[in-house]
Specification:
The structure holds two protein chains of two kinds.
Chain A lengths: L1 E4 L4 H10 L4 E4 L10 H15 L3 E5 L2 H14 L3 E11 L2 E8 L4 E7 L4 E5 L16 E4 L11 E8 L4 H7 L2 E5 L6 H13 L3 E4 L1 H5 L20 E5 L5 H4 L7 E6 L6 H4 L2 E4 L2 H14 L1
Parallel strand pairs in A: 1-2, 2-8, 3-7, 4-7, 10-11, 10-12, 12-13, 13-14
Antiparallel strand pairs in A: 4-5, 5-6
Chain B lengths: L3 E7 L1 E3 L6 E2 L5 E2 L5 E3 L1 H17 L1 E9 L4 H10 L3 E6 L7 H15 L4 E5 L10 H8 L4 E11 L2 E8 L2 E7 L3 E5 L11 H9 L3 E4 L13 E7 L7 E2 L5 H14 L4
Parallel strand pairs in B: 1-6, 1-8, 6-7, 7-13, 8-12, 9-12
Antiparallel strand pairs in B: 2-5, 3-4, 9-10, 10-11
Classes of the chains: A alpha/beta, B alpha/beta.
The structure holds flavin-adenine dinucleotide.
Flavin-adenine dinucleotide sits at the interface of chains A and B.
């Protein structure tokens, strides 16, 4: 297994990559300037794939992977399995499970040929604990020239000011509120509960649309995907697009006044009640412990 | 910027809010669902109309789909597209690569575009494949996940998402961009515009007329089914809010999640 890294710090990456199971880290000299250079990255990655002939190339199903995977697939004349939730090797085939219609539909397909490109949805695969392995060997990949970057001129990288997304991605506990929470004041109570549990606040799209919580806190298909140890959904109905971002949580708790809300089909523990009654009691319990 | 010729690729999809079922061969049984324009494609049409309002030019909306998808082409025309082309096809609803080949052939036949726009992904397949493949089949540059497009100095100034924010690019035409919901809020066409769009000519092409070879062998479908909900919720009982909270908290402690 090899890891292709664009940008800086392959030396530090090599240790973590080794512990995660990689044998080699490929770096692209000259790609350390900040920013994304689509055609250069695509051509360099394609040249590497041609040299090492991997069986599968896995990219994150996010901004980088969604731009780079189709370039690489096209250059290599390889199939691209977009939006994978899972991939396994069966005989000489790679079997991908992809999610469609925002997670409503699952499709299983067998891909043959070399290589197969996969973009893997975030938080779908549990990461293994780092192993006691030597650091990966660092190899240089020549940077390929791509004339096309003259038509797509990278100008600057704008970094989102707050690290809310990273905070959510790393949180062990998330308390999320939906339309049923009803007000900004309601969200203040949820934030207190989240803090008492050592976690942070999330929200449904409907709540964010009403500005009860900031946009960066949206969990779901078009928000952040999370998989904390504990996810508490308060006043959230459980639309598939919301669940797409949280159903991989280890334990899901739903608090909803409607016993037929779809969220209860995904929850491990459910309380059918108005949140206004239960949340303050829960906060008392947590604080007393 | 001088007048801009824009092609917008739009898809009509079974309502993603509905219930999806499939036959044993994995074919979608969606005849019962209302058909709607795919969400992000409306953002693409809106982006095209805004550019035309600033710079002038023409917009053609292209759609690959069954005869009923005429409605979505006409919806794009009501939003502000000048012309519409429907590539009649019933086989490629879930075959993004096949659809991309047809759309690329259609765009090539029309020719002369400065800008091609489409949504970041279709609301049904969710692949995000069509835009990048149409661009590459036509040998023009592309960027995905665009959140803003401005015109000026003979280039499009484009922002696209990256994991920690946005990257800013200058794109020299011709270019293809796939558009996110953040880009704009699609307009609702007025009744007058909807009626006007109904009377305008619309070209219907047959998929068989467009030479479109698929570049890679398709994957073998093993199954397609609605994703199952686990459905094993442990409902906490109790006759007071306090008892409910207590019941939940003790279970969470047993499971060592708090
Ligand atoms: C392409 C697309 C992408 C989307 N992306 C996302 C996304 O990323 N994230 C997301 O969240 N949504 C997303 N959505 C929207 C999604 O479909 C739902 O509309 C949204 O998640 C609903 O939010 P909600 O559960 O807060 O609201 P509702 O569905 O209105 O649910 C409110 C719930 O609160 C309960 N309730 C009301 N009062 C109380 C009370 N006092 N106590 C307890 N419970 C109460 C009700 O019983 C109800 O179940 C997307 C939609 C589309 C089409």
């Amino acid at each position: 297994m090899g890891l292709l890294v664009f940008g800086r710090t392959p030396a530090e990456v090599a240790v973590a990559a080794g512990a995660a199971g990689a044998d080699r880290v490929y770096r692209v000299p000259g790609s350390d300037a900040p920013g994304y250079h689509p055609e250069t990255f695509g051509a360099s990655a394609a040249a590497l794939c041609q040299a090492v002939a991997p069986r599968a190339v896995i990219l994150p199903h996010g901004p980088l992977g969604l731009d780079l995977a189709p370039r690489l697939a096209f250059l290599l004349q390889a199939p691209w399995a977009s939006g994978c939730a899972e991939a396994t090797v069966e005989d000489d085939k790679i079997v991908c499970t992809r999610s469609q219609v925002g997670g409503k539909v699952v499709v299983r397909e067998a891909y043959s040929g070399l290589p197969v490109l996969l973009t893997l949805r975030p938080k779908c695969v549990d990461t293994l604990a780092p192993a006691d392995r030597p650091s990966a060997e660092i190899l240089d990949v020549p940077v390929a020239s791509a004339s096309g970057d003259r038509h797509l001129v990278f100008q600057e990288r704008v970094t989102r000011p707050v690290g809310v997304v990273e905070e959510l991605e790393q949180a062990e506990v998330i308390v999320s509120g939906g339309l049923g929470v009803g007000s900004v004041e309601g969200f203040t109570q949820l934030r207190e509960l989240a803090q008492a549990l050592g976690g942070c606040l999330g929200a449904s799209k409907a709540a964010v649309d009403r500005e009860w919580a900031p946009r960066e806190r949206q969990i779901g298909l078009t928000g952040t995907a999370v998989a904390p140890r504990l996810y508490v959904a308060v006043g959230i109905s459980g639309a598939i697009q919301h669940l797409a971002g949280c159903r991989k949580s280890k334990v899901i708790v739903a608090i909803n006044k409607d016993a037929t809300a779809p969220i209860f089909k995904y929850a491990h523990y459910g309380i059918v009640s108005e949140w206004e009654k239960v949340v303050p009691e829960l906060l008392k319990q947590v604080r007393a412990s | 910027m001088s007048p801009i010729n824009i092609a917008v690729l739009v898809k009509e999809v079974p309502d993603p809010e509905g219930t999806f079922s499939f036959d044993v061969d994995g074919r979608a049984q969606t005849a019962h669902l209302p058909r709607v324009p795919s969400l992000f494609d409306e953002n693409a049409v809106e982006a095209a109309v805004q550019i035309k309002e600033q710079c002038g030019g023409r917009i053609v909306a292209l759609c690959c789909g069954p005869a009923e998808a005429e409605r979505t082409v006409r919806y794009a025309m009501a939003m502000g597209a000048d012309d519409g082309v429907l590539i009649e096809d019933t086989e490629r609803a879930w075959d993004s690569l096949g659809a991309a080949c047809l759309l690329a052939a259609a765009v090539r036949r029309l020719g002369g575009f400065d800008l091609i726009l489409c949504g970041r992904e279709a609301a049904d397949t969710g692949s995000g494949l069509v835009g990048p493949y149409v661009a590459q089949m036509l040998s023009i540059p592309f960027l995905t996940l665009v959140t803003s497009i401005e015109t000026g100095d003979g280039a499009f100034h484009v922002r696209r998402l990256w994991e920690g924010g946005e990257d800013v690019f200058a794109c020299i035409p011709p270019v293809l961009l796939t558009v996110c919901a953040e880009t704009n809020t699609p307009r609702y066409p007025t009744v007058l515009k909807v009626l006007g769009a109904k009377k305008r000519p619309l070209q219907r092409w047959n998929a068989h007329e467009l030479a479109a070879a698929v570049p890679v062998p398709p994957a073998r479908l093993l199954g397609r089914y609605p994703s199952a909900a686990p459905g094993n919720c442990d409902f906490i009982s109790g006759d007071s809010a306090e008892a409910l909270a207590q019941g939940l908290f003790s279970r969470l402690r047993e499971r060592k999640v708090v």
